[in-house]
Amino acid sequence: MSHDIILYDVELTTPNEIWSPNTCKTRFALNYKGIPYKTVWLKFPEIGKKIPEITKNEACRTVPIIIDVRNGNKVVHESWKIANYLEEAYPNTPSLFHGNIGAHFFIHEYCTKRLLPKIFKLNVFTVAEKAGEHQQWFVQTREKAFKTSLDKFVGDQSIHAKAITENLVALGRVLKHYPYLTGNQVGWADICLASYIIFLRVMRPDQFQALIVNDKKAGKEFVEWLKRMDKYMQLNPPAPAARI
Ligand SMILES: N[C@@H](CCC(=O)N[C@@H](CS)C(=O)NCC(=O)O)C(=O)O
């Protein structure tokens, strides 16, 4: 299969594991639109070297970025900008925004501000462990960025778990009435929430079970919605079968 797009993603110790919330948004958007792509995996310390080289911008030090091979190797950085780019550059693919970009952006912002930071606090020790040989690098760079120890940064995990439950209420209520977060069609809003939930599911299956599956108010709705979203939440093309 030819690849129109190269997607840069971040790899921990398990090869081909999709876990990173921001790169998942781009991956799931490409899956949903049916645009062929290949993944280039970077280890954490490689991101700050490789991405500024590609973007020719020292300030761009995160994934996802994409290179659109079909469009003169155009480089686009940052998941929201990539979503907008894909929508414009591939108009004959299923829409992410369905003519209502504001509603999708609102849910993107809501999930990014209200859920992701709490999920990150529940996950950060597991991410550090799974960084393997780069664990120390990961911890040191986070502590420098947060200006405190990871222990202090995380604090009481039960407070974050409670905040996640509270912030899921409104989303769960929507899913009680509609199959997707903005109504009857999958869109960017669903892709954002699914990406943040996959981050929790991979890093903290215990918390995924407690906070999503067993959510007293909307657990059933979240589980049914995740089943509907599952076909987009995949590594694509799938990893080759393990050699015996
Ligand atoms: N707003 C950005 C956030 C990107 C971001 O934070 N990416 C993380 C991976 S999920 C990253 O590249 N981190 C590099 C690092 O922390 O060193 C987006 O949505 O693209």
From TrEMBL:
Domain of life where this protein originates: Eukaryota
Residues spanning the signal sequence: none
GO MF entry, a single one: maleylacetoacetate isomerase activity
InterPro entries cross-referenced by the UniProt entry: Glutathione-S-Trfase_C_sf, Glutathione_S-Trfase_N, GST_UstS-like_C, Thioredoxin-like_sf
Domain GST N-terminal per the UniProt entry, residue ranges: 10-94
GO biological process: glutathione metabolic process; L-phenylalanine catabolic process
Name listed for the protein in its UniProt record: GST N-terminal domain-containing protein
